[in-house]
Specification:
With 273 residues, this protein is α/β, with parallel strands linked by helices. The chain is 23% helix and 27% strand. It contains eight helices and twelve strands. The protein has a seven-stranded mixed β-sheet. Strands 8-9-10-11-12 form a five-stranded mixed β-sheet, covered by helices on one side.
Length: 273
């Protein structure tokens, strides 16, 4: 089994959205300025004897610009930076893989930087948390444009006959294949977040948290992110990830930690096995 790491461009946003209350005015600093930080947009490909499993799809390549899929004000708040080499189709092509070769796509959740390219994987079974799927469909039906569930992305895949498997709340973890297990975290950062545990022969066990844990500060200091749906659920998820990592002696890869992500081997230069 091989685990490929993709870097699909980057986003910028206010650091208070990554680590809540990180820039707050105080008596000794009454004019504290906010700070825009940059973080990577990752996706992961698992190559197994039974086929390919893709974890997240990144942003759609046409997300930015006047005619972009993201509303202009959303682009101003969370701008995407990348070029033609930064999308999931390009990364797969570098490995000689077509989107039609992907048998399973796991969506950690359905926000703009994780589910932007759903429409390309016609042959895949998509696995997502039921509450997350319902939240995305609701945002679409209500035409909520200023939302992390991008209306135009949903509009493109909803017209296709996609194959969905919805994981139920409270169902527990789900083994996709031997050595590849979804951690069914439920509500926290979003309505329903799925982390991924991958057991590799030489690398050992890796837990990919996606946005259940943005970065080291969220994990080690237990500082909440600013973008959060359920605070109690987030803390429950963090505790579960820590306990699972301890039991499995696992490495933990955070969702958007630039410093950590820069230490990982990226595809096509290498992979983990």
């Amino acid at each position: 089994m091989k685990l490929h790491v993709f870097e699909l461009g980057s986003l910028k946003l206010d650091k208070n959205l990554v680590v809540s209350m990180s820039h707050v005015a105080r008596v000794k600093n009454p004019h504290c300025e906010n700070e825009m930080v940059e973080f990577p947009v990752p996706a992961f490909l698992i190559e197994t004897e039974k086929g390919y499993i893709l974890y997240d799809t990144g942003c759609h390549p046409d997300c930015m610009g006047e005619q972009g899929r993201w509303p202009v004000e959303f682009q101003n708040q969370v701008p995407f930076e990348g070029d033609e080499t930064s999308n999931i189709l390009y990364k797969l092509k570098e490995l000689g893989i077509s989107p039609d070769d992907i048998g399973t796509v796991i969506l950690s959740h359905m926000h703009n930087d994780h589910a932007g390219c759903v429409e390309y994987f016609h042959n895949a079974e998509f696995i997502v948390h039921r509450d997350e799927f319902n939240a995305c469909i609701q945002a679409y039906a209500l035409h909520r444009y200023m939302d992390s569930y991008i209306w135009k992305d949903t509009d493109h895949w909803i017209k296709n006959k996609m194959n969905w498997r919805l994981l139920e709340p409270g169902d527990g973890d789900y083994e996709v294949q031997p050595g590849v297990t979804i951690l069914n975290l439920g509500p926290g950062h979003a309505r329903g977040v799925l982390a991924l545990k991958v057991d590799l022969e030489n690398t050992g066990t890796v837990i990919i948290t996606s946005d259940a844990v943005y970065c080291t500060e969220n994990y080690e200091n237990e500082q909440e992110p600013g973008v959060i749906y359920d605070t109690v659920g987030w803390r429950r998820s963090l505790k579960y990830i820590k306990n699972t990592a301890r039991t499995a002696h696992a490495k933990v890869w955070f969702g958007h930690d630039r410093k950590q992500f820069d230490t990982l081997v990226k595809s096509p230069e290498g992979y983990y096995d």
